[in-house]
Write a structure and sequence with these properties.
Shape: rod-shaped
Number of strands: 2
Structural class: alpha+beta
Radius of gyration: 27 Å
Number of helices: 3
Largest sheet: 2 strands, antiparallel
Distance between the termini: 76 Å
Order of helices and strands: HHHEE
Helix content: 25-40%
């Protein structure tokens, strides 16, 4: 098989796999499809064109509910009908992973269903 044809084949197959296959898995896929291409050829094409497989990070649990710390009661109990201003405020925080590391996001809702 000609080198240029192999490069096109590897690049196309890599794109079809949504860039998730490494050179070994891609080689197995191509040989299963009947293409005569060596593992060395696939690896050298990966290296030459700086092709990398995308890896998903494992889901990291950020909440630990098994603790002895204070848990505030649910005083609204899904009753969101406010009768006057400032009667009910609801807030929550969450953690978001970014390129800068973990960032905290806090949201506050005031007077959720109060209309004057």
């Amino acid at each position: 098989m000609h080198r240029n044809h192999c490069e096109l084949l590897v690049k196309a197959s890599h794109s079809e796999s949504k860039e998730r296959y490494g050179y070994e898995r891609l080689h197995a896929k191509l040989t299963a499809q009947g293409h005569d291409i060596s593992l060395y050829m696939v690896r050298s094409i990966f290296d030459e064109h700086d092709i990398k497989c995308r890896r998903h990070k494992r889901f990291k649990v950020t909440t630990n509910s098994n603790h002895n710390k204070l848990v505030y009661p649910n005083v609204l109990d899904q009753q969101f009908d406010a009768k006057r201003p400032n009667e009910s405020w609801v807030s929550d925080i969450t953690y978001i992973w970014t390129n800068e590391g973990w960032l905290y996001l806090a949201g506050v809702m005031i007077d959720m269903n109060y209309f004057e």
